Fold:
Amino acid sequence: MTDVGRHPRIELMTLSEVEKVSGYIGNFRAQVRQKARYVFAKDCTSCDKCAEVCPVVLPDEYQQGFSSRKAVYKPYPQAVPSSYLIDMEHCLGNNPVACTKCVDACEKDCIDLNMEDKLISLDVGTIIVATGMEIYDPTPLDEYGYTSLENVVTSMEFERLICGSGPTGGHLVRPSDRRSPKRIGFIQCVGSRSENRGNPYCSNVCCMNTVKDTLLIKEHYPDAEIFVFYTDLRAFGKGFEDMLKRSKLAGVHYIRGFPGEVKQDSATGNLRVRVENTSSARIEDYDLDMLVLAVGLIPNPDLKKLASLLNLSQTSDGFVMESHPKLKPVDAPTPGIFFAGCIESPKDVKDSVTQAGAAAARASILLSAGSITSQAIKAVPDLTKCNSCGICARVCPYGAISIDLKAKNGVQVVAAACAGCGTCASECRFAAIIMEHFTDAQIKAQIRAALEEKPEEKVVAFLCNWCSYAGGDLAGVSRLRYPATTRFIRVMCSGRVSEDFVLTAFEQGAPVVLVSGCHINDCHYIDANRWTVRRMDKLWDKLEKFGIRPERLQLEWISSAEGGRFAEVMRVLEDLRSRVTPAEIEHTRRVLSENRAARETAMVPIEEQLAR
Amino acid sequence: MTNHEIRVGVFVCDCGLNISGFLDTEDLRSYAETLPHVVVAVRNRYSCADPGQEEIKAHILESRLNRVVVASCSPRLHEPTFRQCVSEAGLNPYLLEMANIRELCSWVHGDNRGLATAKAKDTVKMAAARAVLLQAGIEERVPITDAVLVVGGGVAGIQASLDLADAGHQVYLVEKHPTIGGTMAQLDKTFPTMDCSI
Structure:
């Protein structure tokens, strides 16, 4: 920790949060809000004189509320930066009757109650996200008595009670009477591995953390009797099985079965737990002085906000989705962003350090290279067709298109800023934007090829590259089953799917068309999929006017983590398809082919497009 | 480019049994030969492996191919591989098209060989139709700012920051709390070494 504080190439910003991120791989700009500390960290000598005079007493978060701190405080002795700060929510200094005792007590004059938040803009090439996790709050699992029984604590609270720098100086006491407990129980999987209560996943660290705790207790108090209630013990890492053996040799009792109830003797504060021991097939009672709940890990509650800033996807359990679960385990789907630690899944210190090293190496590869080649997928205006209406400039999520509406001399695209979503090309009514590598002609050729034979048996599905196509890949990797009638067309973004593509598919005889993209707010092109929604809304109206059932055009948001949903959507599409009659398809073909001339008046002939 | 004769080569990957176990890759290959502008269609045992890539490169040169369709796995997995492969044979990487007949076909339709093969044929047909219209793409160099933003100062963020700073890069470490250290700083000892966490 201290190495970070004094490293010449690390600028540490605490009390800081990322508020905005723009740009792309190699060229991100992040806006960071650094909240006021009210103490000049560089000048503070941690003399503690401010805290001595501070009249406000609050529970100490670091000690899990087992001791107190002041409104001016240092989180813990080894904190980096090694400086006090003021908890302004509780400080009296801002009240009409100002306190300012700390200001007077500070010999270095390093307290400023009027300090303001700072907004900092950072230009960076890559981003590593390592926002960790939170500890599960066992309040909902109240049969263990966490909220009502004083001597029931979480494993994190236990950690403070046995720690040398904890509130008791490492002397293990129980909360009710501060006596040293002789009989201690641990309940495993609290908040983990349950479909109904808490979370369905294994939290990875709790088994070994409990094994470690039992050894710590035995080290301090060899006479203590320890009972661990579990269903499976997962000691899969290097050296782990050995630790478990040591714990068993030290006399720790491992009992297969979770307590159904915990009762307290109100006179002594002692606990009695009733357990169905599945090894002995008996109901057993255990008298304990203290009970520790081995609570699981949950995703950081702030992750949602950060995920939308950085275009990250979250899996069903709320942790982040990696670019590829096996081959790119530390890469985010957004290029140039990497993960480290528990943000990706619950893991122990060793795995967090390993992953951090991997993420650092991945980022370093880019930073050391100095440049990367950008994909040649970008918008190029055709000024011979552009009539300077400006709609493309309005829809571009990146502001990469500019136009002088007065001069009417056509649009300009800044190639470096264009990310290649294709929304401009889809919205242009004059075919004046060529979306390179995803041209109108190329995509229509795919539609025609798909529907040349027996179109009535097929569904045409446009999938965005980042989410829906990846969701389809995940369905494949997971070996899910769905009907084989869908023909997929990959586009970079659902924003690329123009009205013309959908109508072409229907005109060629498609019974059902799907347009699928990233969930709203998860679009990899900022908000290009909002234009998809507008376009589809218009299209549904149009289809209705043509006498075509609007439900034959489906719009679905499928993320890269939703393989199961992808397969489900394919089944729904097949069901829809099977109910589209030959007469309907015939009507659709006729009405759309009659209307084609009108649709294409402002457009270039297909042949000409093909030739481009 | 329009006056230029379009010569498409199709490479059908067996992927061991991952594809050939669930659909008829030989039938697919011979079907590919009948598609417009396709001058050669070849089956590879593993297109992505070195022998497969060598085969693709040899056919590009031998049959003077100027478009390549690889019918194998997801382009999200191996498009960079095959783009590199065709460019080693002198083709612009954007003249490659992939037909995903594994993740989106063989792996999900393993219960019906006939339907899986029919879908794979359409998938290759669509890819070949698109390939005919592909044009060489020009990639631009984009500079990378030599600085990294690390969000979160727990043990992972600290380790990543130190590694990158030691490697000579500028690091901005942003932490929400008043100190770095994260959850680990609250632990007494850590397993399996039983040493201090701070």
Helices of chain B lie at 25-33, 50-62, 75-88, 102-106, 113-132, 155-166. Chain B touches chain A through 92 residues (CB under 8 Å).
